[in-house]
Design goal:
It contains 17 helices and 18 strands. By secondary structure, the chain is of the alpha/beta class. Helix 10 (195-207) packs parallel to helix 12 (233-250) and helix 11 (220-228) runs antiparallel to helix 12.
Length: 396
């Protein structure tokens, strides 16, 4: 994986070389507050200053559609590539996902308008301080009361209270999931099975109010990337589908409407060899003093046995420090990885040690995470391939 040459001089990697998300000005957490503020919803600010308000706004979030991957495939996505110059209010620049660049965290940021340190979904799996167990925040296992885990209102709820017509159009399977409850609830939920049906329903919901805030979602591109890799025939076929769906929705925009196409993260393929895939379950050095391994391959939360925190940090830096940014919990928080502030209830959900991949490398766990360890495409860290997402704009 190619990175700026200046970064290569750090061994071990200095924490201040990690490219931080643009919290407060150009991250996913800033998107809905900016759009809703433009609709007159009180208490919210337009922090993405490049965007111009519209009366009817739709966000189409494509899971896994990274900025770099989109630009690398103009033939498969001619419509979306024709819009690259419109990204982020006509600047032609991307947004940043937030750390970690993973679906549960990003959807939490999108829906609440808060960075991970506030909404409290700071990883794929994190420790629940109340039980000591790892909690999968995408699948919500083991069960945890959703609004205890994430107590803030969503932007959709705030918009609905302000008289804006709010709606989410997604697969019916997502209607009552805990992640939907804590990140995307509020207004009308419209369940549609196919992508085409979702685009048509999103256009209908957009036209249903004088002021409308609509969200719709497509997951299959991400699934193809995980299973077959970015650039595989299956992935490219899914990108072609996404391109057609975006154009279908754009052509149905009602008057005074704006469509924004964005994503929750990008993706990078990791080779299947011992150099690029380090198996935690077979590495006694990395396991020493570790009670729980959370997060995912490119964005790990490491929970130490009480009293072993310093030793685990030292060991992980010695073993992985030239290929990962390795930080203690307090160092990661002070550096702003999870946003400008971390709520008290979130503090211990973050690992004693946090490991973010710089290189094309993965910390797998073949016994603990057999399915995840077999994925071709991966994401989570702060590299451009994972962090940068589009914000393509179409107006009627």
């Amino acid at each position: 994986m190619s990175q700026p040459a200046a970064w290569d001089a750090y061994e071990p990697l200095a924490l201040d070389t990690a490219p931080l998300p643009e919290y407060g000005s150009g991250s996913l957490a800033d998107l809905l507050p900016t759009l809703a503020a433009g609709l007159g919803v009180p208490g919210l600010s337009s922090t993405i200053t490049e965007l111009t308000p519209a009366d009817r706004v739709c966000v189409f979030l494509v899971d896994g559609l990274g900025w770099e991957q989109l630009r690398a495939h103009p033939d498969e996505a001619p419509f979306l590539n024709s819009l690259l110059g419109t990204s982020r209010g006509g600047t032609g620049r991307p947004l940043t996902a937030g750390y970690p660049a993973t679906t549960a965290t990003s959807l939490g940021s999108v829906g609440t308008g808060l960075p991970p340190g506030a909404h409290g979904l700071p990883g794929y799996t994190v420790r629940n301080p109340e039980t000591g167990e790892l909690m999968n925040q995408l699948r919500w296992r083991p069960w945890t009361p959703p609004h205890v885990w994430q107590p803030y209102p969503t932007v959709f709820e705030l918009a609905e209270r302000a008289g804006v017509h709010a709606a989410q159009v997604s697969s019916p399977t997502f209607r009552d999931t805990p992640l939907t409850q804590v990140a995307l609830s509020g207004g009308t939920f419209v369940g549609r099975l196919t992508g085409e049906e979702r685009m048509d329903a999103a256009a209908e919901q957009l036209a249903a109010g004088d002021r409308s805030l609509v969200y719709t979602y497509y997951a299959e591109l991400d699934g193809a990337g995980h299973r077959y890799g970015v650039g595989s025939d299956t992935w490219r076929g899914q990108l072609m589908t996404v391109d057609r769906l975006a154009q279908r929705l754009a052509e149905q925009l009602p008057p005074r409407g704006a469509l924004y196409v964005t994503a929750d993260h990008g993706m990078i393929d990791i080779p299947f060899d011992d150099e690029h895939r380090i198996d935690f379950d077979e590495d006694w050095e990395l396991r020493a003093g570790v009670a729980l391994l959370g997060g995912e391959g490119r964005a790990r939360h490491v929970y130490a046995v009480p009293g072993a925190e310093s030793d685990v940090l030292t060991c992980w830096r010695e073993v992985l420090g030239d290929r990962f940014w390795i930080a203690s919990r307090d160092e990661a928080i002070a550096a702003g990885w999870f946003g400008p502030h971390v709520d008290d209830r979130v503090y211990l959900r973050i690992g004693d040690v946090v490991a973010a991949a710089y290189d094309d490398v993965l910390i797998t766990a073949s016994e603990r995470e057999p399915k995840e360890s077999l994925m071709v495409g991966n994401h989570g860290s702060m590299t451009p391939a994972e962090q940068l997402v589009p914000l393509l704009e179409v107006r009627s």
